[in-house]
Amino acid sequence: NTIKISAFSGSLRKESYTTKLIHALQKSAPESISVMRIDIGNLPLINEDLEADLPQAVKDLHNSIKESDAFIFATPEYNRSYSPVIKNAIDWGSRPQGNNLWNEKPAAVIGCSPYSLGGFGAVNHLRQVMMYVNLAPMQQPEFYLSNAADVLQQNGDVNDEETKKHIYEFWSAFEFWIKKIKYAHAES
Ligand code: FNR
């Protein structure tokens, strides 16, 4: 049985490196894993007034979360933090109060930047929020894609051997992490 992963890109721009990185991860995923990229750009900004009658985009996000075994949060770095697009999706996924859909699900967090720090500040802040909503973020290997413009081709293919190796290692560790948490749930 296939492991279903929902992947979220924190960038809404068409030529986003972060979104291209998700494509690269989709292409290289093990056979036992399917990765669906979920568009979070059409969600309204978080607003408790909307909770009485949830907008369709929020309902769609909720369904995607419920159907997923695990998540990938890929984020650009905005002013040394992560993208508000991701924060908005995490916030909606945790609401209305008492319906935190992220609870105890495994997740991976990835930083992506055209510069040399690879989105470290973004990843560091994002992990903090993931803790609070009780996601289970994989600790290692960490994943920072630096110099994204050099590493990712126009079509999203990776043209750098070290990055390819890192993606391979990422997948084997993440598959193991997801199974470990699934097994723990099944046993308890
Ligand atoms: C940036 N950018 C940026 N880059 C970085 O490495 N560290 C940072 O703190 C910031 N800060 C920042 C703030 C804002 C508001 C914007 C719009 C951009 C540059 C950013 O990394 C670059 O635009 C990337 O190309 C964004 O990722 P995508 O859209 O290519 O996925």
From TrEMBL:
Residues 3-149 form the NADPH-dependent FMN reductase-like domain. Gene3D superfamilies: 3.40.50.360. Transmembrane segments: none annotated. It comes from the Bacteria. GO terms for molecular function: FMN binding; oxidoreductase activity. It holds the Pfam family FMN_red. GO terms for cellular component: cytosol. InterPro entries: Flavoprotein-like_sf (IPR029039), FMN_Rdtase-like_dom (IPR005025), NAD(P)H-dep_reductase (IPR050712). This is NADPH-dependent FMN reductase-like domain-containing protein. It comes from Cytophaga hutchinsonii (strain ATCC 33406 / DSM 1761 / CIP 103989 / NBRC 15051 / NCIMB 9469 / D465).
